[in-house]
Predict the 3D structure of the following.
Amino acid sequence: MKNATLVAALVTSVAFSANAMSADTDTDGDGMASFAELQLVYPFLTDSMFMDIDTNGDGLVDDEEMAIAVELGNLADPETDA
């Protein structure tokens, strides 16, 4: 059910920046955020929350996954709120 909700949020999200990951979030500049990188910006982030955000399970959050998390209200927009 969560994945269906996440996919729906992605499909309906049309106004989100193509570069969802800020330099503050992506500290190593690889275009993705690890759990440690996200915890620097979102200290409340738990392992469980990270696993929910990391929908493909690769251990990293990419721009798409970040956009979904922001769209669903799971994380604040790193460009405007962090």
Q: What stands out?
A: Residues 10-19 have pLDDT under 50 and may be disordered. The radius of gyration is 12 Å. Residues 6 and 78 are 19 Å apart (CA to CA).
